[in-house]
Every structure is written in structure tokens, then in C-alpha cells.
Write the C-alpha cells for this entry.
Amino acid sequence: MLVTPEIDYWPTSGYRLLAVDANGHLTVTDDFLRHLLSRPELAPILDSCPAEVALHEQLLETPRCEVPEATLATLQDRDAADNYAVWLRFRARLLAGSTLEASYMALFQGDGVDVAPVLVQQLTQILLRHVLGGKASAMEVRAAEMLFRTQKVSVLEDGSVMAADDETVERHASSGGFGSLGELLKQGGAPLRSVDLDVLGLDNAAAYWQRNECFDLVVSLNHGQPALDALCRVLTRWIAHFLRLEVRLQTDKEIVDEHWVWHVGLDAQASGILNDLYKGDEVSDERRRRLMCLFRLEFVNPADMLAEVAGRPVYLAMAIDEQNRLRLKPQNLLLNLPLSRRS
């Protein structure tokens, strides 16, 4: 019997430096903390003062050591001192939980996230890498990128809805690195009849692995295209890993439900639109057009749900903002589902 080999992707995320506990969750290691210290915001440069270099070397030697505020005050570069303060606060959040999953969940509880978004995105990427494992399809991995990297979305003249990595578009559009699609996306979706697309599909999926950290492949978000189905599978596994429950998730075109009882926006824009629709408030055509997709989520075991909504579907949505950007928040699915254990 042939065994499909595992593929190692996103190698610079630091995932391989973490340990896995008996329950299949990740735990922080000193090597992982050292990896975080290699970020460009923290790595010393030629102009770094001796105190900054000494602090960096001390943390590399003993990544969990205490760093008094007085030590940060000795750094000549105040931006560097601020960056270290952010890193130390982030380290405290990581080490406060028994697992990386627990620390991740705790970030979004209480008074709100108090660490840099780029660090939260790195955690999300690492956790997705763990959730998907080494046998995920290229389309699933590309769909997972949408959960930790902002997408720039354009609706083309023929109705194609294309999503590209926003940072990559901004970096390469003017230089032609993304072809005419990049310029199209950068300009806000001006319609073009023909564009030079570098689109990931089922026929060229193998191309993803050679460039898995380039974040430069475009996907179609139209219904019936493989990216949305892949996103459903990713979100299903995300929920199963964190919440230990089984759900079914599929795309939907509209909510026709007289007994609509629960919804979750996968981003801030979608949350606002769903809330207004649920309350019966007027939603302009312009806001409705921002909805990229609706989803229908069902619990396999209704007993996992709050008793008052057991057996009813949960509607999800994702939407772009005024700049055609899609900023998904996968933590919303972990915090806002109607779970019986929180009743």
C-alpha cells in the first residue's frame, strides 16, 4: 500500500520548532522563542547600541529570562525598546497558557488583543499549519492563507471574483510582478476584458508547493470553484481541533429562513451586515454587494448546541470593506458559536 508523503510548507513560520503534547496540541519551546527573536523588528542592526545587542544575546541564550523595565530604558533606540516591550508582552501571553491553542484563545478574551497584529497572524498561520497537517491539498493551504493574510478582491467584467494577497499586490503591482491583475486589483477593480492571471486551480495545484511562502497565487471565490469548498474544509477542521466537535459547512447563496436564530460574521464587515439583516434594518445595495459568500453550518450532534437553538443552522458570511479588502477573523468561529458547554 502506497503512503502519501507529507509535504512541509510554510517552513519559516516556526511551526517545526514547537512540541506536540499528548492531546495533539502545541507547546512552546525555547527554540520557538528564539525564532521569534529573529524577526526583523527585533534583530540588531549595525546601528544598534551595545545595550540592545546585549539584550538580544541574553534572550537568545535564555529566552524565558526576566527583563526589567529598567533594562529597556537603557536602549538608545526607543523604537527598539518599544518592540522589545511588545515582544515580552507577547511572550508572557504565550507562556501563560498550557498550550499554544489555549494562549491563542486567551488573546481574544477579556479586554481585547493587546499584542501586535503581525504576531497574532503568525500564531494563526502556525495553528493552521498544525490543523491541516502535511497531507492537505494545495487548494486547502491556499484557502487557509485567507485566514491570516488580508486579501484584495476584484470582481471582473465577466463576473469572476478573484482574491489575491493584498500585501503582495501592493508590493508588485506597479512593477508588473503580478501582471495586469495586480494593477487591476491595486486600482480597485476597474473592469478589464482580459487580464494576465496567475490563478491556482485544480489543474496546476502542484505549482503551489514550490512557492508556498510567496503568497502570490490568485484564487477564484465564485460559487462552484474549488477555493470556497476548500475554505469550508479548512474551517471545519479548525473548529474540530479547537472545540472538539464535528460540524458540516457548505456555501449558501442566500438566507431564506423564517427561524433564523444564529449567525457569525467571519470579519467585521460581514458581522455588521448580518446583524442588520437579522434585525430587519435596511441594508443598502452597496453593502449587500460586499458580501462575498454566505455559509451554512450545522452541528452533527445537536446536543453540542445551546438547547434553545439545537438543531438549527448557523449562518456565516464574509465580506469586503470599502477598499475591496477581505480580512477574515478565524477566532470568531471559536468564540461565537452557540455551544452548550457555555450555557
In short: The chain is about 40% helix and 10% strand. The chain has a mean pLDDT of 90. The longest strand covers residues 291-299.
